[in-house]
Amino acid sequence: MSNQDTIFTRIINRELPADIVYEDDKCIVIKDINPRARIHLLVIPKKPIATLFDLTPEDKDLMGHMMLLLPQLAQSQNLDGFKTQIHTGESGGQEVFHIHIHLLGN
Fold first, then answer.
1. Half-sphere exposure of 105 (CA within 13 A, CB side)
2. Which ranges carry the HIT domain (predicted)?
3. Choice among 40, 65, 98, 100 that is catalytic
């Protein structure tokens, strides 16, 4: 499966259902279907980038956008603190090869 065909691309294209919390022209935020915290959101860029190893300098604005979105999302979920995770590569625990940031809070 190429990164063009991931579950996240299919969600972005509305081919699969998801509980969408936020969306703009650069990313989509969904509730994780297997939450590891009371609040567990996935911040997913619409541009399909497989891993952090695949980032290029042109992706810095996209990644900055996603990072700046995290505290706004946390506040919208009434969190006063949160944890983020980005898994990279198979040995880093990445299961879907389309970059995404986990936002977790209790």
1. 16
2. 7-106
3. 100
